[in-house]
Design a protein that fits this description.
This protein has 2 domains: 50 residues; 46 residues. The protein is elongated. Helix content is 76%, strand content 0%. The chain is mostly helical. Belongs to the MAL family. Forms oligomers. Keywords: Cell membrane, Membrane, Transmembrane, Transmembrane helix.
Length: 135
């Protein structure tokens, strides 16, 4: 939802006049689409059908790449906001897009942390560790 807000707010401005917003649009739309595809994959439990793919590793790499590229998109978006813009509504939307890009960056960073823990197997609880010990 936050990624959708980023690209919707940028798309609702005259972003084509500023080259920096092209990068922000690319990053936000690309990762929004891929995130929706991963969500549908897990919702329909398709990862169980493709058991050959190491899903925890794939998700960790995806989240790490999204975090790094959203850092660049956030910095680009925030640096390109001009408070002396003659179009006040463009300023408000671009500033809001910068804020939501920061939130998306933090969310992908947290998701990277948790997917790293899942990949390494550090996310087990007491029940799974008890079963693994006695098997």
């Amino acid at each position: 939802v936050l990624g959708l807000l980023v690209w919707a707010l940028i798309a609702n401005t005259t972003y084509h006049l500023h080259a920096a917003y092209g990068w922000v649009m690319f990053v936000s739309i690309f990762f929004w689409i891929v995130t929706v595809l991963f969500f549908v994959t897990y919702l329909l439990q398709l990862q169980l059908k493709f058991y050959v793919i190491p899903w925890p590793l794939v998700l960790m790499i995806f989240n790490a790449a999204a975090t790094v590229l959203y850092v660049t998109a956030f910095v680009t978006c925030a640096a390109a906001v001009q408070p002396t813009s003659w179009r006040q509504w463009d300023y408000n939307r671009r500033a809001a897009a910068s804020f939501f890009a920061c939130l998306v960056m933090i969310a992908y960073g947290a998701s990277t942390f948790f997917s790293f823990r899942a990949w390494k197997g550090l996310g087990s609880n007491a029940a799974t560790s008890q079963v693994a010990d006695h098997v």
